[in-house]
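If I may wish for something, please sit down with the protein I am sending here and say whether tokens and residues agree:
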Amino acid sequence: MTDFRYATVVVIGAGQAGLSAGFHLQRAGFVSALDGAGAADTRSFVMLDANPAAGGAWQHRWESLRVRTLNAIFDLPRMSKPDMNPDEPSSTAVSRYFAEFEAANELPIERPVRVSEVRRAGAEAGTAEAGTSGGGYVVETDAGTWHAEYLINATGTWNNPVQPDYPGADTFLGVQQHTRDYVRLEDFAGLRTAVVGAGISALQQLEEISRVTDALWYTRRPPEWMDTEFDTQAGREVIQRVTADVEAGRVTGSVVSYTGLPANAPYVRAAKARGVLKRRPMFVAIEPHGVREADGTFTSLDAIVWATGFKGDLAHLEGLGLRTSAGGITMRGTEVLGEPALHLIGFGPSQSTVGANRAGRDAVRAIERQLAGPSPATIA
């Protein structure tokens, strides 16, 4: 028999979406599964976080990303964010806020715990004890196995960076890294650098690096600019578009792919004033000392920063076969279609900070409704 611990709900991830889910589970009367209360006749939950400390992906943001350059941080449930020093690194300021929220709510978080695989429990030997349904999910981690009736996945995107496989990339003799590994602009002083990407991170890093060296900006397509302020109505329209894609089982893009780039952001204005906001068509090949342009000319480079975004960190769910033929995951609200005990938050329409908060609440409400009705294993 496999040894495992039991929780009614396992939350994977403790970034903004996961913390919201944990808060609402606690308010709904779920108790910690870490206190020995994780019996099948008690509504319990646990949160598994791969990070070494509070802060979600924020703790890994590059050193020079300061509070004043952030677009927005939405308040966590019932705890307004404190006044933050505009010149403090966002990695420390936001992480401290998250840590204070965790402590104030005494959330049952285990870290660092990495989930390697999730599979349906069904009639799997060793997963059903007296009082359990034998359904739900088996959650395999590097710190043991959990059995959960419901799963809330809030793993975000940080651990799944997208880096194109460009011809000749392995021959490049200079510095080559993804946004995920970018630390500080000083590392690029004197290094002629290509910044590749059409998102906010690309623009921020282009502006930063151009302070200390020659920086060139490459994108696959001409960027689309958002000249107006991103207001509540614009936000609703974006959510509607992303929701339509998710409900159709299509792959969703980044938030910026739906909104366009903020033309009036301070870092955009600074890059424009410095004369570096000049987009180049994507190069066609990488060579040891630079890149081959689309027109056949050669551009020498010392470094390439791939600010090419991230995708949902869902490798641990791949064994469940959730993908459609179009490559997406079909959802209704936070529920995966045909998998009513599985909720994805901080994904699709809830990628934004405000969306993540709401998704955490909505997932818990859905689980409460399901617990009040038929077992999720019997829902068609």
Summary: The chain has a mean pLDDT of 87. The chain has seven helices and 20 strands. The helical segments are 16-27, 90-105, 200-209, 232-247, 255-259, 266-273, 353-372. Residues 353-372 form the longest helix (20 residues).
